[in-house]
Fold:
Amino acid sequence: MTITTCVFDAYGTLFDVTAAARIAASKDANSAFAKNWPRLAEIWRAKQLQYTWLRAVTGEHTNFWDVTQNGLDFALEALSLQDNPDLRRRLLQLYWELQAYPEVPQMMQDLKANGMQTAILSNGSPDMLNGAVNCAGLRDVLDGVLSVETVGVFKPHKSVYDLVGDHFSCLKEEVLFVSSNGWDAAAASGYGFQTVWVNRSGDPMDRLPWIPQYSMTDLNGIAALACAD
Structure:
């Protein structure tokens, strides 16, 4: 079936989640943090995601900003950096200004030029997502910014993916869903979307009941795939 709607996960897919730590480290080149920022970024992201899954399973929902802060606090303590409130404050501020990956603006423009409906579907809270979208200059190429806060549970709960059809009145089969999280792309495939896993780091496939239909190393091929028909 022809794709009419291209939907993207936000963090790690459109927006570089390592950017906050990388930029903060560049301003403190001789600090202990500057030597450990890749490890901090890795732990921060891992705990952020783990906390969303645990909250979804236990039914104890909170907004994504809370789990982002919780994940950072864990990472800072894991690297013995918890006694640096200025660093914590700077990292959290930079998270509101995450950089988009270089190929994102042109890819989104190509999708819109071909008449594609476009949206973000994210665990992020609306204010976080709006900040990132505005910072990246993507407002004019998005037809929707959909947040899990509408349903009060994190991905990969089915009700999150339902938001796409509710917003666009489209069939599942008309949606190309793109995520850098293998588990997210796999779950969306099981839901009924056509899916792309953007595997930037060359990770193995998650062992789940479903697999994404496509895998790419970046977003450069998305427009050609979505508009192939």
